[in-house]
Amino acid sequence: MMNPAIIIYGFLLFAASLIVHIVIWRLRVPWLSSIMLIFLILGLPTVSMVAVIFGIGGMGGWAGLGAVEWMQVLLLHLSLASAYIVGYPAVRAVSPSLDILVMISSSPGGSVKRENLLRRYSEARVVTARVDDLLEYRLLVLQDGHFTVSPLARWIVRVFSLYRRLLGLPAGGG
Amino acid sequence: MNKDVSLLFALLLSPGIVFLIHAALCRVFRAASRQKVAARAAILGSVPTGMLLWSEALNRQFGADLLWAVLYCFIVYSALAYCYFHFFNMSETARRIKLLTVVHRAGRMAERDLESMYKTTDVVEARLERLVALGQLRFHDGSYSISGRTLVCAGYMVLFWRKLLGFEKDGTGI
Questions:
Q1: By C-alpha distance, which of B115, B116, B125 is closest to B93?
Q2: C-alpha of A159 from chain center
Q3: For testing the chain B interface, which of A24, A123, A126 should be mutated: the one with the most B CBs within 10 Å?
């Protein structure tokens, strides 16, 4: 039997995490904000739910739901939270694709000449801003004017490369 | 196995099902827009996932229980399929992944070499091509105009959310 409370609690948990996220970010965007976001809306709720599911501290069977039902609440929250997190990079640093679309949509006449578009972005730090991000997250290392990747970055590249090979596709264009 | 546990397992398997369908579609539709192929895989994945859910969990539920269970599965599957699509999109378009891949393959790269290899205009041109292929932009007489509303709406939502989180918009926001 699917208790509708599962859906309600799942959404409430996600909403509560989002509210805390918005409040903290409005006060001050944390350092390494992507990692802090993962901790806040994935890590903390998961730990709390595990405590409920395994009855730690006498919380078993809380609010009339059994352990498996709380797992369903957790899965609903994690799926919504993951969907938010994967979209977060486009919010943190506006994606050029979305920026282009908004700019054209709001321009007089609803169109922009190609050379104007390219000129606008030639002055923006489209690439160097991303390099700064990678340095901040210790995925790129800069030493003596040369870049190398960190061990974690090497692992990330291998995962994506394997994924693309399994799909039968070449590396992405970026 | 308890049907509630079966339901959880079937939903957790769904990204893997989408991946298998995506890998097949990539090999069949090589000339098509890669984002469109990924989106179709995410939608088509609902069929085998739905069949699995029905056979393992949903066929033993009736009336309101069945409706709540279907709603729960729809929400979780949609969120997970969305996450899959974004994971693929990261492999396809993310500047940071591209930068890490380029540096990893080179082993070691001078700052100026990275900047000359991965130019801002290349980034923008690639995005303009993709947006035209996706039917979101139209190129005519040297100018770009909007032809689809989906991503423009997403762009405005991202802008709204950036303001809600208190991010400062530094010109392009990039």
A1: B125
A2: 18
A3: A126
- pTM for the predicted model, two decimal places: 0.86
pLDDT tens track for B99-142: 899 899 999 999 888 877 767 677 788 889 989 988 999 999 99
Residues of chain A with C-beta less than 8 angstroms from the C-beta of B22: 167
Q: B130 and A105 in contact by Cβ < 8 A?
A: no
- For B140-152, write each residue's pLDDT tens digit: 999 999 998 888 9
Contact A94, B172 (CB under 8 A): yes
Residue corresponding to tokens 């920026």: A99
Chain A: residue whose CA lies nearest to B7: A72
Helix (H) or strand (E) holding A113: strand A111-113
**Set of chain B residues whose Cβ sits within 8 Å of the Cβ of A92:** 167
Residue B171 contacts A, CB cutoff 8 Å = yes
Task: State the alpha helices, DSSP H only, in chain B.
Answer: 3-28, 34-44, 46-56, 63-93, 95-106, 111-117, 120-133, 150-165
Instruction: Write the ipTM.
Output: 0.86
Give pLDDT tens digits for A67-124: 888 999 999 999 999 999 999 988 887 678 888 899 999 998 889 999 888 887 766 6
Cα(A171)–Cα(A131) distance, integer angstroms: 19
